[in-house]
Design goal:
With 163 residues, the chain is α+β, with helices and mostly antiparallel strands. The chain is built from four helices and eight strands; from the N terminus they run βαβααββββββα. Strands 1, 2, 3, 4, 5, 6, 7 and 8 form an eight-stranded antiparallel sheet that branches. The longest helix is centred in the C-terminal third of the chain and has 26 residues. The radius of gyration is 15 Å and the shape is globular.
Length: 163
């Protein structure tokens, strides 16, 4: 495991103010409850997010604001996360408390909108401040957007099959 470093504590407002912030959306043929259950399922994450090897909840249920978990990623990277948004069947958001990745701050937000007829719009925002101010917003944003569209599509398909 690579050494961990502390990240900047952020709130939900950071998702709009970060130097790099990407939002992608997809519609899943699943209810908001099914989508939220998949986001809450630690075993599901590695099945649709190839960079994730393991998710471990480090807080007991019931989960909510302040809940923590550890995510093990490929390449020996680790992220310790704390949840700053938790509205069952509507929203789940977290930030990195500590990580081995090159980021000073990092947060993700999953917002679910019930479209009726068993469909849910999933809006996923990923926001970050690279370590040491290193940034190339145009390149990073384009790469993140493409990757996140692909990954959110995988998540929607996963929920549709297993929801």
């Amino acid at each position: 495991m690579k050494p961990l470093h502390d990240c900047t504590v952020v709130g939900l407002d950071y998702l709009r103010s970060a130097p790099t912030s990407i939002t992608v959306k997809v519609t899943a043929r699943a209810t908001p409850a099914q989508v939220f259950a998949a986001l809450e399922d630690a075993a599901a994450w590695p099945k649709w997010a190839p960079a994730i090897k393991r998710v471990t909840w480090t807080s007991p249920k019931p989960f909510g604001l302040g809940t923590t978990r550890t995510v093990d990623l490929i390449g020996g990277m680790v992220a310790e996360e704390e949840f700053i948004g938790w509205e069952p069947n509507r929203r789940m958001a977290f930030y990195f408390v500590r990580t081995s990745m090159p980021a000073d701050a990092f947060a993700e937000d999953y917002v679910l909108t019930d479209l009726g007829d068993g469909r849910t719009e999933i809006a996923w925002t990923m926001a970050m401040t690279p370590a040491n101010g290193r940034t190339n917003p145009g390149f990073v944003n384009a790469l993140m957007r493409r990757s996140n569209v692909w990954m959110l599509g995988r998540f929607a398909k996963y929920v549709e099959r297993h929801g």
